[in-house]
Amino acid sequence: MYLPQEISNARVLISVKTYPNPSTTYDELVCNAGFLETGEWIRIYPVQFRALPYDQQYSKYDWIELNLIRNSKDFRQESYRPRSGIEEEIRTVGKIPTGRTRDWAERKRFALREVFTSMNDLVKLAKAQGVWKSLATIKPKEIVKFEIKADTRDWKPTIQDSLRQMSLFAQSKGGRELEVVRKLPYRYYYHLLTEGDDKPRRMMIFSFRYRGTSNRTQTSV
Fold first, then answer.
1. Looking at the 3D structure of the chain, how many domains does it have?
2. Would the N or C end of the chain have less CB density within 10 A of its end CB?
3. pTM for the whole thing?
4. Which domain holds residue 201?
5. 88 within 8 A of 46, measured Cβ to Cβ
């Protein structure tokens, strides 16, 4: 365990946002990951991103500030949750822009602080007792192909009903009305090779950014 049990006023540079995932308990949830100011990876879950007040919503490569506590339900060393749960205040306190020249130098200072070239090495660290590493930057030897696979276009009826009920409950408590998040009708994968691989690995993409890609793809078919 290389990070403390609790981190008060943690400043996190957001580099990963997953697409909202329905939850029968908290409406819909997003998993975030990024870097502490000291450079360590950290995962933040759960976050009700779309339900946050507008002034608390943030983008990739924004610096956010919140109180965190280690997630006791997740053994992975980087996993934390907001100390006050979904009620935790999240403050956007800065951003690392690329500017007109698209200069990634400052972002790279965090994202490329530790780069792996072998998935086998990462798997060993993920299984190592007391390490259980689960977040990392990896540089593949070769990207073999990009795959788009059709998926079901709608949430299961039980999930849709649950989400609508929770949205109505939130409105009764003074919250904003939210449309049921659109289910992605496609799944996205990279097929890639890393050092030591004898065949390509199929890696699924969970990024929030692919929501727009999926919507454009759906419109064109």
1. 2
2. C
3. 0.85
4. 142-220
5. no
- Tell me what the mean pLDDT of segment 121-142 comes to: 95
Cα(135)–Cα(128) distance, integer angstroms:
14
User: CA 106 to CA 89: how far, in whole Å?
Assistant: 27
Residue 1 belongs to some domain of the structure: no
Does residue 150 sit within a domain? yes
Q: Quote the CA–CA distance of 176 and 188 in Å, as a whole number.
A: 31
Say yes or no: 158 and 130 in one domain: no
Question: Within this chain, do residues 122 and 148 fall inside the same structural domain, yes or no?
Answer: no
Checking if the pLDDT of 210 tops 80, the result is no
Q: Containing H/E element for 26?
A: none
Do 20 and 122 belong to one domain?
Answer: yes
For the stretch 157-173, pLDDT in tens is 877 777 677 565 455 44
**Whether pLDDT at 16 is above 80:** yes
Q: What percent of the chain has pLDDT over 90?
A: 61
2 lies in some domain: no
26 and 84 share one domain: yes
CA distances from 37 to 11, 32, 42, 43, 142 (A): 6, 16, 11, 14, 31
The single-letter code of the amino acid at 80 is Y
What are 67-117's pLDDT values in tens digits? 999 999 999 999 999 999 988 999 999 999 988 888 899 999 999 999 999
Q: Are residues 196 and 216 in the same domain?
A: yes
Best CA proximity match to 136, nearest among 38, 46, 19, 15: 15
Q: What is the dihedral of CA 8, 14, 15, 17, to 10 degrees?
A: 110
